[in-house]
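S2.1 Query sequence (AAA family ATPase)
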Amino acid sequence: MTQTQPSARLQDVLRQHAEQAYAHELSALHAQDHRPRPPQWKLSPQAVLTYLLGGSLEDGTVITPKYIGDRRLMEIAVATLATDRALLLIGVPGTAKSWVSEHLAAAISGDSTLLIQGTAGTSEESVRYGWNYARLLSEGPSPAALVESPVLRAMREGKIARMEELTRVQSDVQDTLITILSEKTLPVPELGSEVQAVRGFNLIATANNRDKGVNELSSALKRRFNTVVLPVPDSLDDEVSIVVRRVGQLAASLEIPAAPPALDEVRRIVTVFRELRAGVTEDGRTKLKSPSGSLSTAEAISVVNQGLALAAHFGNGELGAHDTAASLVGAVVKDPVQDGVVWREYLETVVKKRDDWKAFYKACRAVS
Ligand SMILES: Nc1ncnc2c1ncn2[C@@H]1O[C@H](COP(=O)(O)OP(=O)(O)OP(=O)(O)O)[C@@H](O)[C@H]1O
Ligand SMILES: [Mg+2]
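Output structure tokens follow.
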């Protein structure tokens, strides 16, 4: 089911799974990992941490950092998965919840594809199992007619399952997870049987702060999780380095023929994002209004990325203010009326006054 269609070669796949894209790093870690591994884990917890945070191995293999931020948070996340509690990653949009969850599953189980995308329409069947109705009608209930959910497969194979946006899922469907997480069993009454989770099984769920209150987790379910809150990057420098790193990777995989972005240009975009998000300038002197959108690191990455594409195909191949202005304004002004006012005020009271931002100011004026 998760096989890539035969006609698509791996290098043609638009976005490879983490275990494909970083297969080289994972196999080097595997070969040089001499620490004890929890049952069914591909790597020891320490090696999983190195995979997440980066480092270099004895043989010189360089492991690129996937998560940039607090080491302790990642230690807690990895350690949780070695216990009988599941892991819940919470944070505002764009704080790498899905990204970290994918890499954890790839490093621990070698498989990040056992994924359920939570929505208001997610049904119990997609969390447990469904039926192949043609077979069900012709043969009656049988193991062959059962369609396993990703969670069921993870239980059977002793792998990590992933559930995205858990708090968007209706409460009664969320609660199907309780038996799975506490009993580690999923009854299949139609077959008079049950599936017992194999060692190595665990679950990573993600939830967005912005959805708080939509479908709050029941306290029974909450108790089955250890929660790790992923923060917005602490400092401007951290956020700039996240953006630079991710843009480099994305530009390489999309083969955008542009020079890597100048650091100044990225710094400026990240500064704009941080100031508008915080509602105050970096020097703390000027109070600002915040726009309605989330202005996350993820959006800063796409602004720079889109700017690079413009520069490569319609500019001189080097990212400049002219290339970033259009997508930046698009990211900030989500509501043309309200956000438009916030943006123009920022432009005139902050951007205009910065001596080294003149070209940027002009470019923004031209598209605002
Ligand atoms: N601290 C960080 N370290 C490394 N990458 C980061 C960090 N913060 C954000 N990113 C990057 O931001 C992008 C978006 O992250 P992701 O989609 O995982 O966010 P999310 O928290 O799941 O957001 P949402 O709530 O909207 O689903 C990823 O490409 C990721 O690399
Ligand atoms: Mg996400």
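The CA atoms of residues 101 and 363 lie 38 Å apart. The radius of gyration is 23 Å.
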